[in-house]
Amino acid sequence: MTDFKLITRKILTYIFAGLIVAPLYVIALWGLGHFLNNWIEPSGIVTIVFMVFISPWIMMALRGPVQKRVDRILYGWRLPYWETMLNLPTRLRNILSVSDLAEELLRPIPRALNTPHASLLLPCNGSFVSQFHNQLIGVTPPSALELHQDSPIVKWLRENNGLPLTKIIDTAPEFTKLTQAERSAIQDYKIGLLVPMWNNGNIIGIIALGPKQHSSYSGEDIALLTKVSRELAATMANAQLYSITRDRVHTDDLTGLLSHGYFHRRVDEEISRCSRFGNIFSVLFLDVDLFKSYNDAFGHLAGDDILRKITCHIKGSIRSIDIPCRYGGDEFAVILPESPLDDAYNVAERIRERVESEMDTKGIAITCSIGVASWPTSGVTKEALLTAADSALYWSKQAGRNRVSLASAAVSPLESDLGKEEQILNAVHALAATVDAKDHHTYGHSKKAAEYAAQIAHALGYSSDKIAILKAAALLHDIGKIRVPDSILLKPGSLTDSEWIAIREHPKFGVAILKHIRSLGGCLPVIQHHHEHFDGKGYPAGLRGENIPLEARILAIADAYDAMTSPRPYRSNVLHHQEAVEEIVRCAGSYFDPEIVRVFAAIWEPEDCRTLGNSAAR
After folding, report:
1. What residue numbers bound the domain in which 560 lies?
2. Which helix (H) or strand (E) holds 393?
3. Burial class (CB in 10 A: 0-12, 13-18, 19+), 38
4. Across the beta sheet with 146-148, what order do the strands follow?
5. Does residue 416 carry a pLDDT above 50?
6. Is the domain of 129 the same as that of 241?
């Protein structure tokens, strides 16, 4: 397949390098003619020979910098994502966490290759199952994809060591034997490209990409992904081996399920992963009803047998990617990746019905009660999430046992009397505090930005309801920085291109974290676009003028004012109030909406300055 972009890249590199070297020839020849008057003198011949040998060396030395300039022309804003991908194998070679490797691998792919989503399929119970995803802003996470080890697609990958595109899957005779389930999954996923990860002759993972937007994948795209996947394969294999060994250490001897400690660690990992990629997950808490009475009546050996049977019923009711654990005694817990509350309820009900039916068939009076909670709907922190699941389980027990309760329904009368607005604000302040805790330099920034934004909105005639939404958005506008490494947030110097990628994606990750909380839906456009510039040169979408949501334009000014008047690790000077206002006025029309700047400047009239300053300080 001819890759015209790659050819163009090489041609332009040599043309531009030649345009730099050619004048050196001309200057040298002119100097010989001017000073020697005769090029065939020994010194002239030596100079010409020297030029012949030194010029190719100069061309090669210039090729790197020139190629970088050419790449910037051809790839534009996508170039840093390409460079990030090329540096992944070196940067990740010592990582032993499968989830960390998967997240770092998938993070730049959608931007680098212009695809809406990318997933990593890893071995699980005889299949390759999509366990990690990343997608562009506004794109729904792809459907779960599972390819059996004996699938025609996996066989094709093994035999051809190639990259089946959608066209090949649709037309090649090898794929006529696909099961209907696999064909439906592929159609739902809209596969554009599959890339195997090879290690010692075995496929240890498959990278699955959606269709490339506005074009097809080029040879250069495929070469990049193949190179990165091959170089990372050994690291991924080591991480998988480490994970298997670790799981064996944390396996319960009686049931063969993972342990209480492992459950807590995996919940932490799921929260981290979902925060980065905007996914959702749920947890089930299951308690065996009247187990103590059964144990006392029939003995501990019979009780152990019941626990093993319930383990089988749980495993037979969940997916291969779900994680069942023994939480302790007669309690079990299950982590359900990428499952919202309603789906998790269906799984829990399936487990409950299966336990009841199987036990009833054997004449055993054993049932189970289950509580269901979902992140972040039921709780943002691990403690809040597990407390919600535990409360739901308690509610099931109190309501008569042998039932499933959702965390959203398991509230006490006191909690149900709380106003909806108060509950939302409590959640908002808790979320904002998590960002403040990451960086002492920005402590209180969200709260101050919210106060300034509310002042501007009030001056613009906003209603109290709209101001409340704007304040909530301002309090949460930096929530996406939870997934930005501290080494970047606290870096005292300027950031590299790859570090800027993480910073510029924090609005996306903020939306990804909050989009599952319905009551905060009105905040999402503000959070997503508060770094857009009025002239269209901001991020993440490059919106211009009035295409930027009005509340986002308000927050941009409030955010900038507090940033300029507060200390930051990357600069030593802090602007005084008047200097900051003058800077915002100077940037009207480029960074900020001129009309909102006018209103903002009017707020800070001398007679009002002290009042607002004191209010913000409080």
Report:
1. 420-617
2. helix 382-398
3. exposed
4. 146-148, 127-135, 117-124, 202-209, 193-199
5. no
6. yes
Together in a domain, 441 and 589: yes
Domain identity same for 195 and 262: no
As a whole number of angstroms, the distance between CA 551 and CA 209 comes to 35
When the pLDDT of each residue in the chain is averaged and rounded to a whole number, the result is: 80
> 206 phi and psi, to 5 degrees?
-135, 130
Helix and strand numbers, DSSP H then E, in the chain: 26, 10
- The span from the CA of 98 to the CA of 121, in Å, is 12
What is the token pair recorded at 543? 């919106």
Is residue 218 predicted with pLDDT exceeding 90? no
464-476 helix and 445-459 helix, angle to the nearest 10 degrees? 150
Same domain, 203 and 110: yes
- Structure tokens that stand for 414 in this block: 């006191």
- Is residue 221 within 8 Å of residue 5, measured between CB atoms? no
Any domain includes 9 = yes
Q: Which of 350, 384, 414 is the last residue of a domain?
A: 414
- Is the separation of the CB atoms in 376 and 395 below 8 Å? no
- Answer yes or no: do 310 and 189 share one domain: no
Residues 190 and 124 in one domain: yes
Distance separating the N- and C-terminal Cα atoms of the chain: 65
3-state SS, 475-534, equals HHCCHHHHHCCHHHHCCCCCCCHHHHHHHHCHHHHHHHHHCCCHHHHHHHHHHHHCCCCC
Burial (CB count within 10 angstroms: exposed 0-12, middle 13-18, buried 19+), residue 526 = buried
Tell which of 75, 102, 117 closes a domain.
75
Angular region, 37: left φ>0, alpha ψ -120 to 50, beta rest: left
Whether residues 469 and 555 share a domain: the answer is yes
pLDDT tens for residues 436-486?
655 555 557 888 899 999 999 999 999 888 898 898 899 888 888 877 777
| Tens digits of residue pLDDT in 257-307 | 999 989 999 999 888 777 766 678 999 999 999 898 888 888 989 999 999
- 433 with 569, same domain: the answer is yes
